Amino acid sequence: MTIPFHTAFLRMPTPAFVADIESGEIKAANGSLENLYLNVGATRPESWAEFIHDHQTSLSQTVALIKQGTIERVTAPLQVGDRLLAAEISLSLLDETNVLGYISHTDHLDFSVAENTLLKFALTESSAGLWMWEVEGDTISCSQSIASLLGCPLEDTPHNTVDWHSRIHKDDAAKLIQTVKEHIEHRQKYYEAEYRIRRANDEYIWVRERGRTYSQSNAGEVKKIIGFVEDISHQKALEEHLRSQATFDELTGLLNKGAALTHFTKQLGLARRQYTPLTMAKIDLDARGLLADMPLDQRNTAIHTTARFIYKKIREADILARVAHDKLLLLLPNTSLKDAEKLMKTFLTPKEDERKVLEFSDASHLNLCVGLATFPEDGENIEELAQSANAAVEKARTSGLTLSIAE
């Protein structure tokens, strides 16, 4: 270690250690870690296997899982004197042979801090509530915002999955249970589910639940999940109204193919009569094939999230429709090719906070590509424009590009 690093390491308030990746030997421990054991007259373990009470999985195997992105942190029981502490261990590579580990004791989670930091990028709605679930012990901890959402005191919020499921509408419970079960069995990072939950006044509200694997065992098993629920009752009421109109796609809430044709034809007629520019964009949501191996619910969540992200980027006069499972068609009235390219870049190169929202639902702007076609150069009618835009997006997809213009 360099002198500045060595000093910082020793003075860290968080218990920390440096270990040899291959042998698992703990080569250095800071004062906080030493004191953790000295204060109870216990001897600090000398190896990773002794430290986490697991002689089956080596430190090198754990580091390999971290490099692969399979796990982010390890949950392990630490024997400190006569106490067994449930702790989170985060590992960071120092070089090819050494790893830095730092420990947080997480038997109790401070939700007042978590709501402002851990999921700040996601907790933007006032109705969102944060929770943590310890899978092995089936213990759920809820924030005050969950209590507000359910209309009950904090002590009356669900404390385990039995309590939670007892509040869910009987028609929605099985699907949620299966979604979470698959999340754990397949060791996935995220999941999303929508269901009705009963408030303290016996009223059911629609909520969207998003869960994220927070910590895993040394072998990659999901140990803790953290996430939030938000009230989407108003959104569901609107979706129901739109479905009754038979013009909107159920998954994304966008226009369906039939309704889009009507709107597109009208706009093309205006462009022809008024001699104004008009551009069509074909958007492939899975240009790199990242959705192909996902479970259906997970794939639908990614498509829904990406479609809604794009919808928020377009202008009021623009018309966006879902015309195939992973394809969108966007009509841009009174828009030149140059202006259309600028608009496309707003969702092909999203900001950091927007990327995080997409990644939370296993979506990515890197999986998008767009083909552009203009009226009348690339087509005199909607069908011809659509064919030109489709040829452009196919060219972009096969060439590894994000944007292509019809020739």
Automatic annotation (TrEMBL):
InterPro entries: Biofilm_reg_signaling (IPR052155), GGDEF_dom (IPR000160), Nucleotide_cyclase (IPR029787), PAC (IPR001610), PAS (IPR000014), PAS-assoc_C (IPR000700), PAS-like_dom_sf (IPR035965), PAS_fold_3 (IPR013655). It comes from the Bacteria. Transmembrane segments: none annotated. Residues 276-407 form the GGDEF domain. Residues 191-244 form the PAC domain. SMART domains: GGDEF, PAC, PAS. This is PAS domain-containing protein. It comes from Rhodanobacter aciditrophus.
